[in-house]
Amino acid sequence: MKNVCPVCGFDQLAEAPYDKDNNPSYEICDCCGFEFGYDDDSEGKTFEEYRKEWISNGCQWFNEDKKPQEWDVERQLSNL
Ligand SMILES: [Zn+2]
């Protein structure tokens, strides 16, 4: 089963962002840079608000090394 980032739809997370008890993984998404358990706690923003910000900032990759050659943000967002 794939672990999908609830912010950007990136589906290659190493761990599930939250376990069944809603404990965060503290993993940082390679794509949008969201840190589960940290960013969702600090400013009280929803995933949707983070997503809008990320998109309006040009959908920058946090870890460019992990960016697929033929990356399509629309396709990735359809994972959500
Ligand atoms: Zn993400």
Strand content: under 5%
Order of helices and strands: HHH
Structural class: mainly alpha
The count of β-strands is: 0
Bound molecules: zinc ion
- The best one-word shape is globular
Largest sheet: none
> Approximately how much helix is present in the residues?
10-25%
Number of domains: 1
Q: Overall pLDDT, averaged? A: 94
Notes on the protein architecture:
- With 80 residues, the protein is an all-alpha fold.
- It has one domain (1-70).
- Helices cover 24% and strands 0% of the residues.
- It is built from 3 helices and no strands.
- It has helices at 39-42, 47-56, 73-77.
- It is globular, with a radius of gyration of 12 Å.
Give me some keywords for this one.
mainly alpha; binds zinc ion
In short:
By secondary structure, this protein is an all-alpha fold. It has three helices and no strands. The model has no long low-confidence stretch (mean pLDDT 94).
Draw up the topology in text.
Layout lengths: L38 H4 L4 H10 L16 H5 L3
Bound molecules: zinc ion.
Zinc ion binds next to loops.
